[in-house]
Design a protein that fits this description.
2 domains, 18% strand, Arc Repressor Mutant, subunit A, four-stranded antiparallel sheet, Jelly Rolls, 266 residues, five-stranded antiparallel sheet, globular, alpha+beta
Length: 266
């Protein structure tokens, strides 16, 4: 686990917008002042003081902008940390269902104090991992309480999470919804119902959006032709890839790459 001051990380070390990349770790951003905008999947989240943004490992994300006066804390951690907690399933549900948590002033002060204590312990000559773990657990528990998320993991939620993991693994193989349903030993109708209840979109929309998000990542490599990216993602027809990209993003892959080029030049 690592913790950083947002004002140092965002304003001094990061040029926005950052490339759209798959997160290799879970992270929490807790601003105590100012605000920032983060793309998470297909959604843009504006996060201000007295809020916390939670992003799970594997999500495609980008920091779009931040205010000059932004301050706060940026915490990264891997799944091994969650596995040490008794309530790990609730934390996973928290990250999935409630990416932005609204905090009252007391909870915000509590989280700020915990972040300071974690930094203080990590900066000692011999940091105690158990102390850091307990402090971090208290932070997660406070976020869980602030979210008012009901404890308990429903079967539909578990299926939706399993479906997402399968999409992350097999997205380039263009599995049909029936294929995913068979892997999960359920009907395609029930799979759609589960995904709809958790993410407010159909299973097909979820898979298409994830594939196009991956293509946005590949489009950052200007040496790769767009048709090559389409074939790499197992689109048999590059023109269909272009139509789907424009339908979901609003511009063609060529226009998207031109915008990336303009950002890079500036």
């Amino acid at each position: 686990m690592q913790i950083y001051n947002v004002d140092d990380l965002f304003t001094k070390n990061i040029v926005t917008p950052t490339p759209l990349l798959k997160a290799n770790f879970n992270f929490i951003v807790f601003p105590t002042n100012g605000n920032f905008e983060q793309q998470v999947g297909n959604e843009i989240k504006k996060v201000s003081a007295n809020q916390a943004l939670l992003v799970m490992q594997g999500e495609v994300t980008s920091l779009l902008r931040q205010s000059k006066n932004v301050k706060g804390y940026y915490i990264t951690f891997d799944d091994k940390i969650l596995q040490q907690f008794k309530d790990q399933s609730y934390f996973i549900k928290l990250f999935t269902v409630t990416p932005i948590i609204q905090l009252n002033s007391n909870d915000s002060k509590f989280l700020e104090q915990v972040c300071k204590l974690i930094i203080q312990e990590l900066e000692t000559p011999k940091p105690d991992e158990q102390i850091v773990l307990y402090l971090f657990q208290s932070l997660l528990l406070k976020l869980l309480k602030s979210s008012e998320l009901k404890k308990g993991s429903s079967r539909q939620f578990d299926i939706a999470i399993s479906f997402r993991e399968l999409v992350y693994k097999h997205y380039s193989e263009h599995y049909s919804i029936n294929d995913y349903a068979e892997l999960l030993h359920i009907s395609s109708n029930y799979l759609n119902r589960c995904v709809q209840n958790v993410w407010n979109k159909s299973a097909k929309q979820f898979t298409q959006q994830f594939i196009i998000l991956q293509s946005q990542n590949y489009l950052q490599d200007f040496s790769e032709p767009i048709s090559g990216i389409a074939y790499h993602l197992n689109f048999s027809d590059p023109s269909y890839f272009g139509r789907l990209f424009k339908k979901l993003i609003g511009i063609s892959p060529q226009e998207y790459r031109m915008r990336l080029s303009d950002i890079k030049d500036n």
